[in-house]
Amino acid sequence: MKRERKGEVWDFEHELPGGSGGGGQKLILGLDGGTTKTICVCMPIIPSTPNHSPPVYARAVAGCSNHNSVGGYVFLVLIISDIFPNDVEYYVENDAVAALASGTMGKLHGCVLIAGTGTIAYGYTKDGREARASGAEAILGDWGSGYGIAAKAVTSVIRAYDGRGPETMLTCSTLHELQLSSPDELIGWTYADPSWARVATLVPVVVSCAEAGDQVANDILLHAVQELASSVKAVVHRLGLCGKDGKDSFPLVMVGNVLEANKRWDIGKEVIGCISKDFPGTRLVRAKVEPAVGAALLAWNYLIEQYQQELSGVDYN
Amino acid sequence: MKRERKGEVWDFEHELPGGSGGGGQKLILGLDGGTTKTICVCMPIIPSTPNHSPPVYARAVAGCSNHNSVGGYVFLVLIISDIFPNDVEYYVENDAVAALASGTMGKLHGCVLIAGTGTIAYGYTKDGREARASGAEAILGDWGSGYGIAAKAVTSVIRAYDGRGPETMLTCSTLHELQLSSPDELIGWTYADPSWARVATLVPVVVSCAEAGDQVANDILLHAVQELASSVKAVVHRLGLCGKDGKDSFPLVMVGNVLEANKRWDIGKEVIGCISKDFPGTRLVRAKVEPAVGAALLAWNYLIEQYQQELSGVDYN
Fold first, then answer.
1. Which CATH number fits domain B112-286: 3.40.50.300, 3.90.930.12, 3.40.50.620, 3.30.420.40?
2. String of b and e for B265-291 (b: at least 16 CB within 10 Å)?
């Protein structure tokens, strides 16, 4: 089912019977706005059984809603204000928060590590404190990100070529992958398009070379593991998620294709191993739903808690 | 004295009497085209006494002639073809070559290390072989460059702030220098303008902190020294400038504000020390003239050699 809004077609993949307008029922929209696509889901505000979330009434997919990593939030608020009447409440959060909620089913507690083109670690305590590490993107040294890994690989090819670094299998594999004939052409390729996502597509090449025994590729991945683990450890340490003795249990949600490689050289597994050495209570949680549903569950969880407080009817004043 | 060409004013700073048109005399123009300004000098093709170069007849300064580091050469050739008749010979070279010539007074032998916003090492043998190391700019790991040093400093501030790295004096000094109130604002500052030269202006802050005993700043400079030295060593090794026993003498021209700090923490001096450990024949040469004169001397040297060969009149056929 497709609908049009301001010349753009929004594709509603599925819609439950009677879901249109919710029949007077109060609804939650969960939105995950990215640079390539934007996903929106709709769910009702109804109490649910333990370990189950409310049903998703509808799901829509549209294009980019985050034109600029810095100004993205402002842009989103403008769009939302434009669509909805004044009595609708909305909350805009860092997408790491929605990713955390997609693993904890809406509860803001624990730590999330995202590693795709970029990387960020975000954590929340039960009493509402929060902390972040990394997430300052490529120029400011997010070396565990997909971009960071791939940029180090391309740099290693150049270093081997001009005599500053050891020979590496990455040279042959990278040139083959990009259909280039010499490392000199790699410089042109790198600067032809400043997109970090484009460089980050080389991560599987690095993993393959490391699996084939290449020392340079292996060192790049080991360094990335240290970097990713250090982001999580910094957040856990600052928030005291591990308790006073460092052994308390806390959920760690891991999201992003760098962590989901699931190959022989498993970056995600190594990161968990590295964190668990310092914090044995680390409990790995894989995301159960997509981030847009995580965002909706965040609001759902918040509203259900409010509803339960009202039901208990205790007035301490 | 100012002259106009296609709406742009070229400022001739000085011109010797009778220098206009050279009075039928054959002339050389040496051009140094950069992103902020372009310098052109004019000298005659006359033999000169040893250790002296011909006089500079005129010197002109204009704006940018290198709009794009990749396409710059093509652009220059188009300009030159437009101005001069077909019987004028011209040579376009990497600006590292002009920098080498500015230290060796036109002789293409030895190695040059440039470290300003970017960095490159270039070398030539007497029999015409050449080699390069670094010079692939920021994304491809020129960590000894001014940009590389400053980017590491800014990254260290962010790492200290989010708990991934040790506390450093760079935090206070960098925020003070940029008139920012928190490291969070530093992220915005970094991405507000993608100019590498803008980030590189923070190098003196790193040097000051290292001189004041800050370990993080000190480590950044030590790493830069290793990187710069490794570029030179790669070129020297590949060209065999050091001879078979590694002890032959060769000139090393060092250019750029990173190497000319001339403070207590002297990056250039440390680089020389590091290279000399491997190659004791390294002979430091400071540039005696500006790169535009170096470019002219390059052509002058080439033409004088041709002239001397003609004079010797030997025909081996």
1. 3.30.420.40
2. bbbbbbbbebbeeebebbeebebebbb
